[in-house]
Amino acid sequence: MKKSFAGLMAAGMLFVSVPFTASASGGEKHPEKVVEYVALGDSIAAGMTPYGEIGKSYPDFIKNYFEKGNYTLLDYDNFGVPGYTSLQLKTALQMNVRTIKEVKEATHITINIGANDLFRKLLSDPSRASEGIAEARDNLQASLQQIDRLNPGAHVYVMGYYNPFSYYSEEAQAFLVPLNDALNTVIETAARENGDTYVPTGPAIDPHFEKYMPNPEDNHLNVKGYKVIAKAFWKAIKEDRK
């Protein structure tokens, strides 16, 4: 089923509300592998399904990787919030006492943010979509710098988005996909300029979007898709240890 660009306006906000937290430990004790993991982001981090429910998220699966990898997982906090923008994340890192505390203590941090900045501009005035990308760039850079101030030793991994417009018509995608690519470019640039790790997800998700994004009316992933994202992050985490 192909969507017209007009369908975008009716679809609502991308990756659009409650943070989830959990603590866990497991596996053999390896003091050199003690982990405190914090996830930050929008509804993709929260685990929003293609049918409007919250299920297992990619951070949940990363947590499982730590446990099965014989790490000592002391703490796991998922601050993914549906609808979150880059400004809201920046504000949380500056003002939310609990977020600041957990980021200060984290050994590993994953982030996905910026899609809602783009989508809000698309919904209000598509001609100003590039402004949403610029906002995401500036706020993400500020957030990464703030994380460095709070915890310069943390391993930080920043996600690039898959194509959320795969069901749209070719005409609509000709306008929308370059915007998503531009968003990923500024995300990657901000991560690399800050010495953090960029984790692309499009190469794994996009060729099989119908498998991982099964609802043509919604751009969220199913559990299989979140497992694929977690695997991409885990590959980056393992390479960091080499």
UniProtKB/TrEMBL annotation:
Residues 39-228 form the SGNH hydrolase-type esterase domain. It comes from Fictibacillus fluitans. Transmembrane segments: none annotated. The keyword Signal applies. Keywords: Signal. InterPro entries: Ester_Hydrolysis_Enzymes, SGNH_hydro, SGNH_hydro_sf. Pfam families: Lipase_GDSL_2. Residues 1-24 form the signal peptide. The lineage of its organism: Bacteria, Bacillati, Bacillota, Bacilli, Bacillales. This is GDSL-type esterase/lipase family protein. The keyword Signal applies.
